[in-house]
Amino acid sequence: MENEQTPAPPQTPAAAPAPSPAQEVGASLRAARASRGFSLESVCQHTRIPRKYLEALEAGRFDDLPAPVYLRSFLGGYCEYLEIDMRPLWDKLHPAPSPAETAPAAPAPAGKPAGHGAPAPKAPAHAPAAATPLEASPYFNALVSALGAVSLSLALAAALVWWVSRSIAAPRAHAEEVQTPQALLPLRPATEPKLAVTCRDDAWLSVRTDGALVFAGRLPRGASHEFQAKKTLLLRAAVPENMDLTLNGAPYRLPRPDESGDYRIEAP
Prior knowledge:
Blueprint: H1 21-35, H2 40-47, H3 51-59, H4 70-82, H5 87-93, H6 99-102, H7 140-175, E1 194-199, E2 203-209, E3 212-219, E4 224-228, E5 232-237, E6 243-247, E7 250-251, E8 263-266
Antiparallel strand pairs: 1-4, 1-6, 2-3, 2-5, 5-8, 6-7
Helix pairs in contact: 1-3, 1-5
């Protein structure tokens, strides 16, 4: 009788890896766009964000962006067009540190106190003899008298030198001409920054003056707008190359953006 072979148990497929925070953010953007019936082409036309960067955002491939500082700018423009809150998505990419990471390190344990059984230090076999008070020395009074005489002589010599130098310097001081102090120049008032923006193509931007948001939206091609602040302007633009800028009437070139993607503009 032939031995029957036992069939091998079916293999369980391996579980799919959990999506990364970047992939979760991209899936949320793609789902929001699909629920509103928008195509990538229409989003590209309205936000002026290149299509390849929109695809990179939805796929969670943030390394495909031109620079890390563009992530917040592109993500903010996309969320604003979809009318969704960007903060939960940004917090998912940059979670707050856990309490365990921010807790201060525990202090090192103090040294163990000596036990009762530790031997006490031994007393010296012979105690030193008591010192003789200086006042009792026969030379103390003579030393004090000599020091007093020397101090008196030095004081008289110093007074004589001061009197002689003062007598010589007094006529010379009257002979010198009195110099007229120079008049202080008035301080130049600080110039308030005034930024003029002219769009060579449709452009999305937001502007803050002295910390207050004064504009956020899209400007059409050929539009011009001026923004003035007391101290500081913060400009954020999806494609800054589509804009011509002047600061206080002079052509202006944007500096490097900060970590949040804002361009900080101050008076020259």
